[in-house]
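=== RUN LOG ===
request id: a7f3
mode: sequence -> structure
chains: 1
length: 424
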Amino acid sequence: MLARHLEGRILAGLADSPVVFLQGPRQCGKSTLVQAIASGRHRARYISLDDPAQLAAARSDPTGFLAGFDRNVVIDEVQSAPELFPVLKRAVDRDRTPGRFLLTGSANALVVPEMARALTGRVDLVTLQGLSQGEIAGRRDGFVDWAFSDERIPIDLETPRDLPTRVIAGGFPEVIARRTSERRAAWFDSYITTLVQRDVRDLAQIDMLASLPTLLRMCAARVGGLLNFSELARTVSLSQTTLKRYFTLLEAVFLLHRLPAWHANLGKRLVRSPKVFLHDSGLACHLQGVDASSWNDPATRRGPLLETFALGELERQSGWSRLRTTLHHYRSHAGEEVDFVLEDSQGRIVCVEIKAAATPKSEDVAAMRKLAAELGPRCVRCVLLTTGSGAISYDARVHALPISALWSIEAPKHGRKSAGTRVE
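=== RESULT ===
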């Protein structure tokens, strides 16, 4: 089993919260992780509601089901039995002993009404994604913490030759373990079918599911673009009301992701529309028909796929970062764009731009430099990530690095300091 960097966050939650809810897409490694925790540092009984007998017991008599546990318990895929949530709420209100319940779910707790009502104020919510590149390599990747620190710019990094393979594989452990593109494609096909036929149907109790795979493919073709519901509704022949409902369902099972626009009082008009992404770059490549043989084809939109890959790495690291950060994109009506804007709880900003080119140009950092000037000291650092090698410094805050910086830079060992970087 590969070490998961979120394990420490989960154990910290179990030490002071009665309920820890580990959510994330199916097959991202939730069950493996909680079983390891339950048999190791937090002794607990493990129950999976993917087991038909356990599921039937939980749904038919939820009170009796929970009463059968006299010690800490892990309940895997708990969203399969929504009848449990009112009982869980009452049990926690009676006894708030930390670590009693470790729950996992393949549906976002915030969009499932029963879960949201029962768990609000009682739960430490943790989101697990697929494997990060650092986890695959056995290294604690710390780009996010580094970006907000005053640590020096690394100068000896280079983009690995297998970058296309990394982007095409994505982060699902089962896909990474498969050796051929044919077997990976078969896994993705089965994964989509299973999610639509089981998880989405269970969440929404709807029968008209034929449009969901089409909607997912249309969104995959638009990754990195602004989300336009009216245009998308015309493309998939759905009303906007139905489309928005379906889109929310695909978000709930961690397939689609809306990246919100960042805005501040800068005295300019800013685009407020979110961008659309898939959570996993491998799934986006699969739905676009991109594999190793077509990666360098002129028709392949490598830039948006690299953005999807980078967003996944940043999201994962935000889960175990020492900082509390949120992710956005930035676009002005004048056409100035920054792919990713990270903001910490103090309102400090890091800008990240992705370019599918080995040789950066000064215009590639123009929007970041302008935004940094407008934000003043609030902007800590701007980083252009490319497919090249080495470091380039444009000024004290703006630098170009290989995209491998996302997983090759470790988190600073000391506490946070104010920014003030330099290349040495």
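=== NOTES ===
The first strand starts at residue 19 and ends at 23.
The chain has 18 helices and 13 strands.
=== END ===
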